[in-house]
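Reproducibility note. Readers wishing to regenerate the assembly model reported in the main text can use the exact inputs given here. Chain order matters: entities are listed in the order in which they were concatenated for prediction.
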Amino acid sequence: MTTTDKRREILHSALKLIALNGFQGAPTALIASRANVGAGTIYCYFESKDVLIQTLYEELEIRMLAALTKGYPGTQPLRERFIHVGKSFVRYCLAVPMDFRFLEQFHNSPHGAAYRRDRILGGKDQDIIHELFEKAQKEQLIKDLPKMILMNLFFGPLLCVVRDHVLGFATLDEPTIDRTVDACWDAIRR
Amino acid sequence: MTTTDKRREILHSALKLIALNGFQGAPTALIASRANVGAGTIYCYFESKDVLIQTLYEELEIRMLAALTKGYPGTQPLRERFIHVGKSFVRYCLAVPMDFRFLEQFHNSPHGAAYRRDRILGGKDQDIIHELFEKAQKEQLIKDLPKMILMNLFFGPLLCVVRDHVLGFATLDEPTIDRTVDACWDAIRR
Amino acid sequence: MTTTDKRREILHSALKLIALNGFQGAPTALIASRANVGAGTIYCYFESKDVLIQTLYEELEIRMLAALTKGYPGTQPLRERFIHVGKSFVRYCLAVPMDFRFLEQFHNSPHGAAYRRDRILGGKDQDIIHELFEKAQKEQLIKDLPKMILMNLFFGPLLCVVRDHVLGFATLDEPTIDRTVDACWDAIRR
Amino acid sequence: MTTTDKRREILHSALKLIALNGFQGAPTALIASRANVGAGTIYCYFESKDVLIQTLYEELEIRMLAALTKGYPGTQPLRERFIHVGKSFVRYCLAVPMDFRFLEQFHNSPHGAAYRRDRILGGKDQDIIHELFEKAQKEQLIKDLPKMILMNLFFGPLLCVVRDHVLGFATLDEPTIDRTVDACWDAIRR
DNA sequence: TATGAATGAGAATTCATTCAT
DNA sequence: GATGAATGAATTCTCATTCAT
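Running the prediction on these inputs yields the following structure tokens for the assembly.
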């Protein structure tokens, strides 16, 4: 196993344990043993457990933001772009339910307090999303509300719907996803 | 201090600590001392810390559901009823931000896993809400989607918007609340 | 065992282990078990291991200073007073060899760096000793050297002699002690 | 860097760290990195950390004893020889305060317990010193006390005075050194 | 020889829970 | 019932040492 592999294994094992059992249920000893790594090895790669968690968060966030804008149809009508972003978000979350659970735990914990919460949909990559909302607002395609509200109107239901699915309280199929994203558009459009 | 007072003090002190510092930041010794109560006293009222937390959750949930349907305009048009419930939800959360933080932490933790998540908007009192969605669906006022989706379309953005406000990332004023709830209605109506 | 007893037992067990094995050889778990006390109990009485050690130091220092001036012949000639203090110092150290070893370890460690080293012969009680040197200097009974030097001339050999005895490299009997203290007087007198 | 250089660098870096921070504050990893050497390299030269420390002690001791007898005035009166040795001791310690701090730490630690303590003034080279005391005793120049006591009477104050200087509690100038060594002679002479 | 990533036993400390008072 | 001192298992983190390269 190479050095990079160990780092990856540790991050993966931490992700899995925290996603399933919460921060309380992920002692470093268990993270290490699930990663097939010595207890001290964690500290070769991360200064502390907290830093490990922060790092994990940052990596997952980057991946999610990349997924959101992958295949972004920058030339199509604005509405199509919204729909694309919404569907991408749902599909990506469903594809990596562990990541999703981890991010949710992180945001709702003192760890996440340091991070501006809106960063789940804000950061470098997401300029594209802010831009999208701004442009749509200028063209008077969407309602005249603060951008933060509009983003929550569009992404909030998707977040909840994904959570229900991931926790097993509901099941999403493709047509339902499509119609849900359409409904989110209805929430913000004029 | 009467027996009932002690119980209340313990619950209140636990709520405050958990809301502000998370589960990790609320050791029983601190909960007890903030409640002006001996460390062992907690165990006169609750079998364990977990039971204390569960109990706290249940009490807060009951209060919130009661708030949701208080003054429910059962005779007015369905749309008005939705608007009422939406606004009540936002106003109540803003009125008791600690409760809101606690509930969020609870839902996104292994504690909450035991609880069916939909219970935040489901339980005894909330029959009224399920009923509302069912009736609106029958009258073809709202979209033909699973009830769970519809509920998330309506409440999801409100949840997010309140969270942003409580965490200090945004500020809500009355007109904005009204227009946001209206937008939520747009998401579900035909 | 009363509360005070536990505190005393912990301090005693720490003293013994550190005196014999050094700071490295005195893990908290061992201190606790030798004191017939749970591992966590130490933290009921002391904030941290460091605080335990500081406290132990302060208590031993107080006892030693008290011993130095016990039976102080304040009315006899100054020479007699020096001889009394010198002998008291040696006898007390020989009576409590553990205390002596602990104090030596403490002074020669980063712990002791915080403490002004001269405090082994300086503090509240020892005003009597500083006074003694000052008075003898005014009366031109002893040499015209900085007080710190004079104190080291008088106590330095005693310290070394006691150390040799305690470590088993030499054996002190009463007449030898007396003659050694006399020789220390010779070092400072005019 | 040659093999010998590496060995020297390791010893030097260990000396510095231990002198300043104590044994606790000198982890092997830090010793290695300060010596610009890999963590494992220490074990090419020393069997264990303990052996490294023992070796360091022995080297410093040899150097100090050599300094003590350098320029030894073997043909002058005995008193001059004592004065020479005393001043050489003080001057050498002041010249290499790190060495002095290390030796003090070593002597007052379980490491030093293995070593006969008197070896600070006893060993191969120091035969010259033992000889000096014995000759002076035979000629009835100095008091009739055990040699160990006499050595402590002479060197004890110097040790303490140097310690105070090195720790910054006092400042020694040349005339004070001279007069202090004279006073030490007063302590042992008849 | 030299390296430094990896190790895991052991360290200090925390904290939910108990129980004698 | 109420207390809070005491507990000890569990947790995070350190560090001397090893070993494949």
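We highlight two features of this model. Residues 14 and 45 of chain D are 13 Å apart (CA to CA). Residues 49-69 of chain D form the longest helix (21 residues).
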